[in-house]
Amino acid sequence: MTDPPEATVTLPAEVVEQYEKFSRFNSPYPAHERGRAVDLYPGDGVGRSPVAGTVSAVRTVGCPDRPYAADEDHLIVVGLDDEWCARAGAPSGTVARILHVIPAVAPGDRVTVGDALGPTTRSGFFGQWVDDHVHLGFRPPDANPLRASGSLPVAADLPVERVAWDGTGTVVERGPTHVVLAGPRRTEPGPSFAALASDGGVPLDGGLTHYAGGGTFAASGAAPGEDGRDERRPRSGDAVSLLGTRIGTAAAHGGGSSGAPRVEWGAVDVRANGDRIVGLSLFAARGERFGVKLVCPDRSFAIGESVTVELVPSDDPIRLGVG
């Protein structure tokens, strides 16, 4: 006798559209690697609630020691309203786990979608190049809500525009460990979000290739095949390439039938103007021009500098862990 399939929690479009960026796979933590968590980037330092329900617990935990980060992080647990669960396809009694927000709420408080939970915090659980965000995961009914393991698959119910890129751009933003290139302009007026696309036209998600795996987004303008799925979406075992180089292999879906496939990154180096850098940070973002984030703590680029990115096979690719 086999266990019933897990429910996938599918975030409605109006929930995700509160935020400037989102990603399911741009993290080395196990929940993200399996498509069982999503990071939502507000852009203004306010940790808004992506769910509706009642706060059941608030916890403060110690962070890994990072010179750029706070010593503590915070967990907010919300028991979800039945109406919210029904819209998201979650079982009644599902709870949400929210991290990286300094809580301005307490157990017993009611929250709705868009309510301010508190300011976001710079957490030692993520890299210095990572923007402040709301980490969101879900635990099924009767599970320990304080544990991350066993979280439900997560998907987002909105299409993402696929943006083609030739690997070039001009530096428009600098940070201690990253730069952002002015990437290509978006071409479609409809979708709220866009992401860099593979050579096959699939929007990509994750840390390429400094985390072990990444994923894809559901593409806008998809042409369904005979089975109703996007004919461009890779199936398990298909090769995925970018800038003319094979970067990985599509794996099982991360996030149930409505989630797009995971991608297991191959042995690839990212080079910028000939120098090896840590990698590319891939996500879905709003805005007319799609910026490309290069993770490069050991390489300095000047504002206005022209950069050409190449992807090349590697015998020793960079892989970052969670320690």
Q: How would you describe this structure to a colleague?
A:
With 323 residues, this protein is mostly beta strands. Residues 224-228 and 255-259 have low confidence and may be disordered. It is globular, with a radius of gyration of 19 Å. The protein folds into two domains: 9-156, Distorted Sandwich (Glucose Permease (Domain IIA)), CATH 2.70.70; 159-313, no CATH class. It is built from three helices and 26 strands. The protein is 5% helix and 41% strand. It has a twelve-stranded antiparallel β-sheet, with no helix packed on it. It has helices at residues 13-16, 30-33, 82-88; strands at residues 9-12, 21-23, 38-41, 46-48, 53-62, 72-80, 95-99, 110-111, 116-119, 134-139, 154-157, 160-163, 168-174, 178-185, 193-196, 204-208, 213-216, 239-242, 245-253, 261-265, 268-272, 275-277, 279-282, 284-285, 289-295, 306-313.
**CA-based shape:** globular
Tally of separate helices: 3
Radius of gyration: 19 Å
Strand content: 35-45%
**Structural class from helices and strands?**
mainly beta
Question: How many beta-strand runs?
Answer: 26
> What is the N-to-C order of secondary-structure elements (H for helix, E for strand)?
EHEHEEEEHEEEEEEEEEEEEEEEEEEEE
- Order of strands side by side in the largest beta sheet? 18-19-20-17-16-23-25-14-13-26-21-22
Number of domains: 2
First-last Cα distance = 39 Å
Mean pLDDT: 88
Low-confidence blocks of residues: 224-228, 255-259
* Largest pleated sheet: 12 strands, antiparallel
Q: Estimate the helix proportion, in percent.
A: under 10%
